[in-house]
Amino acid sequence: MLSIKNLHASIEGQEILKGINLDVKPGEIHAIMGPNGSGKSTLASVLAGRDIFEVTEGEVTFQGEDLFDKEPDERAKDGLFLSFQYPVEIPGVSMVNFMRTAVNEIRKHRGQEELKSSDFLKVLREKKALVEIDSKLTNRSVNEGFSGGEKKKNEIFQMAMLEPKLSILDETDSGLDIDALRIVANGVNKLKTKDNATIVITHYQRLLDYIVPDHVHILYDGKIVKSGDKQLAVDLEQHGYEWVKKEMAL
Ligand code: ADP
Ligand code: MG
Ligand code: MG
């Protein structure tokens, strides 16, 4: 699904990612944890294709193809989904119409016909029920005046509609309350299939009380310094990042 090899990336000449290696297979949930400023959001941004970051070394393949050969919108159409810490608001465009356009763009990219209106509405109803989102929200303009929890709900709804192959959810610094954490976790758990994968980026172990990751990685100063299973997140919660530093002699 995703293969990252020796990825280095910089901003304004300063190296932030210093050789990341990561393999994600279909059906897997990975958690990336790490202290503030370790490069977690940078990694997500580089994968999404934000051009303020410069990739200086390494390679990334997504479903067997070179990710960096593709523009950000192509990556999305190929099935890469990124949550944003600060999602854009689009006044005057309802969520329903926004999703209709997005879903049909993706279908076109895959060589499928546009969904008939009645079929789209059927899918919409199913997905709304799945992620327990209310019509009051989906009929409103995209993200306009949404609370933090509503934005999260909306994000999970988008994930459900777009059926991405790989979702990268950066939950780090957004100060999610417990309800928002549950929304994200329920969404990830419900949308998991044997064919898709999720990377959850989180500063706190709390989220992993609800999502059980197959692999946990600790990012420290631009490198993955330790990987393990869900126990690693528990150990980290107990002993803190100082423990990792000591153990790894960092
Ligand atoms: P994390 O998400 O793990 O908290 P970030 O990826 O946001 O870490 O940041 C990693 C480092 O990159 C930090 O030192 C941060 O200051 C720097 N950085 C991130 N974005 C920018 C930017 N737009 N301009 C300058 N430095 C940045
Ligand atoms: Mg940060
Ligand atoms: Mg961050």
From TrEMBL:
<dbReference type="Pfam" id="PF00005">
    <property type="entry name" value="ABC_tran"/>
</dbReference>
<dbReference type="InterPro" id="IPR027417">
    <property type="entry name" value="P-loop_NTPase"/>
</dbReference>
<comment type="similarity">
    <text>Belongs to the ABC transporter superfamily. Ycf16 family.</text>
</comment>
<dbReference type="InterPro" id="IPR003439">
    <property type="entry name" value="ABC_transporter-like_ATP-bd"/>
</dbReference>
<dbReference type="InterPro" id="IPR010230">
    <property type="entry name" value="FeS-cluster_ATPase_SufC"/>
</dbReference>
<dbReference type="InterPro" id="IPR003593">
    <property type="entry name" value="AAA+_ATPase"/>
</dbReference>
<dbReference type="GO" id="GO:0016887">
    <property type="term" value="F:ATP hydrolysis activity"/>
</dbReference>
<protein>
    <submittedName>
        <fullName>Putative ATP-dependent transporter SufC</fullName>
    </submittedName>
</protein>
<keyword id="KW-0067">ATP-binding</keyword>
<dbReference type="GO" id="GO:0005524">
    <property type="term" value="F:ATP binding"/>
</dbReference>
<feature type="domain" description="ABC transporter">
    <location>
        <begin position="2"/>
        <end position="246"/>
    </location>
</feature>
<keyword id="KW-0547">Nucleotide-binding</keyword>
